[in-house]
Specification:
175 residues, 9 strands
């Protein structure tokens, strides 16, 4: 379900996420307890997906911009299981990549959530969210309908293409 890698320092990808500040593509959580299924759903339903850094707080830099600062979080099986349970509880389950960063000092998780291929995603309670403007927003009815139509339209095109191909083959054989 998830790729797991560990790094002693902070990777280039994590540095970029820390310096970017919370926004459309990144969110910070101080603890795993602060991570909710709707966070995962929101990123999976968004156009580009995103990342959640767990064990990271938000601070104001010298330039006045918000950025992430590692505060540390235990890197253990219990935390990994909590994260994976939340991803698996979504409908359909969300595939995530989990990385342990900065193991030498203040470790934190980098959770990468790709834009989903089976949109729309919902929590087990049936909540549909999307990540926009640096926060999780409810999907509006027309957004939800468009996601369903996109998904079902793609499936219809595949089935229609298969059916017409089979029909063309039978017609060619009959001639």
């Amino acid at each position: 379900m998830a790729e797991r890698r560990s790094f002693q320092g902070i990777t280039k990808a994590a540095r970029a996420l820390l310096s970017a500040g919370e926004g459309k593509d990144v969110d910070y959580k101080e603890k795993v307890k602060g991570l909710h299924a709707e966070d995962l759903v929101a990123f999976a339903n968004s156009e580009n997906g995103g990342a959640i850094l767990i064990g990271v707080g938000e601070v104001t830099g010298r330039d006045g911009k918000q950025k992430g600062e590692p505060i540390g979080h235990p890197i253990d099986d219990a935390s990994r299981l909590q994260i994976m349970d939340k991803a698996l509880s979504c409908s359909p389950p969300i595939l995530v990549d989990l990385y342990a960063e900065n193991l030498g000092l203040r470790p934190f998780y980098r959770l990468e959530i790709p834009s989903g291929t089976q949109k729309p995603y919902a929590t087990s309670a049936g909540t549909y969210k999307i990540r926009e403007d640096g926060r999780n927003n409810s999907l509006l009815p027309e957004q939800l309908l468009n996601m369903f139509l996109d998904r079902e339209g793609a499936e219809f095109r595949v089935r229609f293409s298969e059916a017409t191909g089979a029909l063309e083959s039978r017609m060619a054989e009959a001639l």
